[in-house]
Amino acid sequence: MASPTVDHAAVYDLPADHPGVSDLAYRARRAAIAEVGRRHRRGQPIPDVEYTPAEDEVWRVVSHELARKHERYACRAYREGAAAVTLPTERVPQLREVDARVHGLTGFHIEPVPGLVPTREFYGSLAERVFRSTQYIRHHSVPFYTPEPDIVHEIIGHANMLGNPVFADLYELAGQASLRSRSDAALDFFSRVFWFTIEFGVVWEDGELRTYGAGLLSSYGEIEVFRDAEIRPWDIVAMGSLDYDITRYQPVLFAAESFDRVVDELSSFFAGYDDEDHARRLAAAGR
Ligand SMILES: [Fe+2]
To answer: Which terminal residue of the chain, N or C, has fewer Cβ atoms less than 10 Å from its own Cβ?
Structure first.
């Protein structure tokens, strides 16, 4: 997941509301795991992290609960991706094995990073079919909540999607669009569309609202209540112009009337997006 304001010096700091902020053993553990990502260089094998029994237990609890909820709330294309990736459910997966699995399915690589990656770097990697993932796991005291992307979000949310070639191609197109967004305003608009689709997108499927958004698919609480959000019709300019708050459940979501429409419209948006397209879209919408 990307953050617009992160610099690498802050990677090992935790925000005051992080459940592990006063747990020094957790912080040391998180830093040691982050260090594996910091040292990794592209093309080299991804070193394994030795997860503790407590960390494996967090994964076991969360992945079982989310798998149940995905049956009811996840769109078909995500469930197909997850079925193809077949993540372990009893222990935290190693990025090495997730990378091998996803790469074999769609050619996407999963690459470890020590924490949040600067926005342009994170999106730019997608153009090379590389998804950059944290490896540390949320604090055990609240297994169903994390204020930052952890391995649950990255792998259950994103890597499962990347097991489906349809999503893999969308992610790559998104990366290419980010590289053509030279102005900060164009990148900001692109990031918001990414947020309201790849992270929090919802779609009508067989008369029910389901999600293809990694943020919802990896959120134990929010996935149960997203149908209560204000559901607005699919509209690229509206998505690209709306502010959002990452610290709370999303009060507004945008629904496509079919998954085919998600793929068609998002592909053509990403494929044609650059600074000029951004300006044209705003002018056409009178903004
Ligand atoms: Fe994400």
So the answer is: C
